[in-house]
Design a protein that fits this description.
By secondary structure, this protein is α/β, with parallel strands linked by helices. The protein has one domain: 3-Layer(aba) Sandwich (Rossmann fold), CATH 3.40.50. 44% of the residues lie in helices and 17% in strands. Strands 2-1-3-4-5 form a 5-stranded parallel beta sheet, sandwiched between helices. It is globular. About 8% of the residues have low confidence.
Length: 144
Amino acid sequence: MRTPQRHILVVDDEQDLTTLYRMELEGRGYRVSTANTGQAALASVRGDRPDLVVMDIRMPDIDGLELMGRILSVDPSIQVVLNSAYACYQDSFLSWAADAYVLKSSDLSPLVSTVERLSFLAGAAQPPLAAAVTGRLMSRVLQH
C-alpha cells in the first residue's frame, strides 16, 4: 500500500536514468520531479518540497552525500534513498542518514519496492518527523 501522489524527486546526472525512473514511478501513481545536478535538486527541494528523494552519489557539482546533508538541513522529514552503482558507499557512516541504499541495476524492482516500503511507513498516522525517524530506524532493521 502506498500513499497516492507522494512527491518524489529523482536526482542523477544521467538524464536517461532520471527519465526511466520518472516513467516507472509515475506509472505507479507518484508525482515525480527530476534534477540532473545537485544545485537543481536543492532549488527543487526549496521550491516544491518532495516527500522522498532518490539520488545518485557521484555527481559532478555536489557529492550526493553532501547533498543529502543539505537536503536534510532544509527539512529533516524528507526521506532519502541513495541510489548508486558503487556498493562501497553503503557501509560508509556518511550514508547512514539515508533511509535506504539501493544499488543501481537494470532491474528497477529493488528501487520501486524500497520507495513503496518507505511510502507505506510515511503513511502511518504519525507527525512527519516521527515518520521520518521511524522510516530510518525500520530501514536499519530491515537491512541487517
